[in-house]
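Hi R.,

Here's the input for the 2'-deoxycytidine-5'-monophosphate complex you asked about:
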Amino acid sequence: MSADSRSPLVVTIDGPAASGKSSTAQMVAARLRMRHLDSGMIYRSVTAARLRGGDAPEHWTEQSVLDAATRVSLAPGATSFAPRLDGEDCEAEIRGEAVTGLVSLVAKMPHVRAWVNALVRATAAAYEIVVDGRDMGTAVFPDARLKVWLVAAPDERARRRILQRMGREPTVRELAAEAAELEARDRKDREQTQPAADAVWIDTTGITQVEQVERIVGMAEGMR
Ligand code: DC
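And here is the predicted structure with 2'-deoxycytidine-5'-monophosphate in place:
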């Protein structure tokens, strides 16, 4: 963790899929009176923009994805940022199956990553943010004052995801299927999902969300 008090206050929260990054980042941001930015949401919005082209993903060149990206923007709200596509809210569209199935393809494109990173950095220059993603503490904000790496056991991540989606505990079979899907996503995203050397690791398997949030808020407050 870098303790340079001259750098803008950026808190990065990275980790694999379903490690609880976004919900934790949202609660941390609320406590610190900062804004939450979900960088995965930007990759999803770019994917949704390109999907509207209607042609098969095999034909998606990096340039055509970059062209689509120019239609994506972020609308600042009181506590977070809403994704906009062609000036309209696209939150529901980016959480659908079509986008979820193709976003890893888009996130692998180096120029798209550079475009997303520039948007995230520009946002951090204008607002104090708690940003979650995969490489926020490594590629995007190597000098962030506080970097958190969240991990949780695969079965626990699968369980939380089903609880969130279905509002009940999973069956043994559902749990196994969800864990396998999460592991497949981890494999696809592995290259860009790495902890910073100076990140604080928090294993959330056995602790409550309130406990995680308190730990992160406590560390961040000590740095203000
Ligand atoms: O966290 P998520 O499921 O919304 O992320 C969507 C996709 O974007 C996923 O394939 C990982 C990728 N991603 C990334 O490569 N780098 C980030 N900083 C955030 C997300």
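One thing worth noting: The mean pLDDT is 93.

Cheers,
M.
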